[in-house]
């Protein structure tokens, strides 16, 4: 199990985690900051200079998951992870990667009043012999107070929240340990999607409203929006898989087998294996159907109808390209065969 201690920079996550190692049996401390330090030696300076935060590097997020799984496999028990995550899509990616490895995560938010937080930041002495470096750390913490406040709505909805304003790190650790024992800090409700071991077949279904806007859904377990759909099970026809997924994800029963729009061969991009991707035309939903959509909270957090231009701000490039060709196929009334997103034949 992993206990992920989240909160503002300067909220006392690492201090609380250290205290927790004495209160939680068979626990160990894993600080993802070391991954960022290692990347300073592994990546070219040019690549490092392209981002202002290690978290913006996909390789950082991937290594955080891989290292956590490896450490947990080595030592067992409970892994205590003090790390600020303020971007929900990064939380999705990291927690989704852990869920795919069947690792339960208890998400704990250490919250405090902004006045107290600022006072704690000004009292930090990370490098007593280097005032300039200490001030740089303080400045980083101050600069991220705004993003933390902006992230609070989803953080509080996602995590067990503990107000640490009047607590010492030891007292905060005791409250967290108690919440873990009683189950108050429950396992983060996120779907456990097994990691693929080979190429996969996946079927998506495009559903439209009366204005011909397409329905997208927001998964909890990976970044970016997606089409309703999922992996085709062994022995299952792709179109039937799309029908099943729409019913499971949205509570919508399609009246007939949907028409194929595109089939796209997705090449492997390690660590992904690629495979065949199908998009089907599920037709228009009745005007009031959107009010009856039922989302599984552990898998999808939201939905919306969007235009093609609006989809560009939500979909990752590969899925956006696939959507655009699917819409062209729908206009032309004939399916398209794609290889790596490019029509062939």
Question: Which helices and strands, and how do they pair?
Answer:
Layout: E1 2-7, H1 13-23, E2 27-29, H2 33-42, H3 45-48, H4 58-75, E3 78-82, H5 88-100, E4 105-111, H6 114-122, H7 131-143, H8 145-158, E5 160-163, H9 169-182, E6 200-208, E7 214-219, E8 229-231, H10 238-250, E9 259-266, E10 275-284, E11 300-306, H11 308-311, H12 317-332, E12 336-339, E13 342-343
Parallel strand pairs: 1-3, 1-4, 2-3, 4-5, 6-10, 9-12
Antiparallel strand pairs: 6-8, 7-11, 9-10, 12-13
For the structure shown, list the relevant keywords.
five-stranded parallel sheet; six-stranded mixed sheet; 345 residues; alpha/beta; 21% strand
How many distinct helices?
12
Strand order within the widest beta sheet:
8-6-10-9-12-13
Order of helices and strands: EHEHHHEHEHHHEHEEEHEEEHHEE
Give the overall average pLDDT: 88
Approximate helicity band: 40-55%
Low-confidence stretches: none
Number of strand segments: 13
Describe the structure.
This protein is an alpha/beta fold and 345 residues long. 40% of the residues lie in helices and 21% in strands. The protein has a six-stranded mixed β-sheet with strand order 8-6-10-9-12-13, sandwiched between helices. A hairpin with an 8-residue loop joins strand 9 and strand 10.
Question: Summed up, what is this model?
Answer:
The chain has 345 residues and is of the alpha/beta class.
């Amino acid at each position: 199990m992993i206990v992920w201690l989240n909160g503002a920079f300067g909220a006392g996550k690492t201090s609380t985690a250290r205290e927790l190692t004495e209160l939680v049996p068979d626990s160990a401390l894993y600080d993802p900051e070391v991954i960022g330090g290692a990347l300073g030696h592994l990546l070219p300076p040019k690549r490092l200079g392209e981002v202002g935060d290690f978290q913006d590097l996909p390789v950082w997020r991937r290594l955080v998951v891989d290292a956590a799984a490896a450490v947990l496999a080595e030592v067992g028990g409970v892994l205590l992870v003090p790390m600020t995550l303020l971007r929900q899509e990064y939380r999705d990616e990291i927690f989704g990667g852990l869920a795919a490895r069947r690792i339960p995560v208890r998400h704990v938010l250490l919250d405090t009043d902004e006045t107290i937080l600022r006072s704690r930041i000004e009292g930090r002495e990370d490098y007593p012999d280097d005032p300039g470096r200490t001030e740089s750390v303080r400045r980083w913490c101050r600069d991220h107070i705004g993003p933390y406040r902006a992230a609070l709505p989803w953080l509080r909805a996602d995590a067990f929240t503990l107000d640490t304003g009047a607590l010492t790190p030891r007292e905060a650790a005791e409250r967290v340990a108690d919440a873990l024992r009683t189950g108050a800090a429950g396992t983060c409700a996120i779907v456990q999607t097994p990691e693929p071991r080979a190429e996969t077949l996946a079927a998506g279904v495009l559903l439209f409203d009366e204005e011909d806007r397409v329905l997208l859904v927001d998964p909890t377990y990976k970044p970016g929006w997606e089409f309703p759909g999922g992996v085709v099970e062994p022995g299952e026809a792709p179109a039937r898989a799309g029908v099943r997924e729409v019913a499971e994800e949205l509570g919508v029963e399609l009246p007939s087998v949907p028409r194929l729009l595109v089939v796209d061969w997705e090449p492997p991009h390690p660590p992904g294996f690629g495979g065949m991707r199908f998009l089907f035309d599920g037709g228009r939903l009745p005007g009031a159907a959107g009010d009856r959509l039922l989302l599984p909270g552990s898998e999808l957090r939201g939905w919306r109808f969007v235009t093609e231009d609006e989809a560009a701000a939500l979909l990752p490039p590969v899925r956006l390209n696939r959507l655009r060709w699917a819409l062209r196929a729908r206009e032309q009334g004939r399916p398209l065969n794609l290889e790596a997103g490019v029509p062939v034949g």
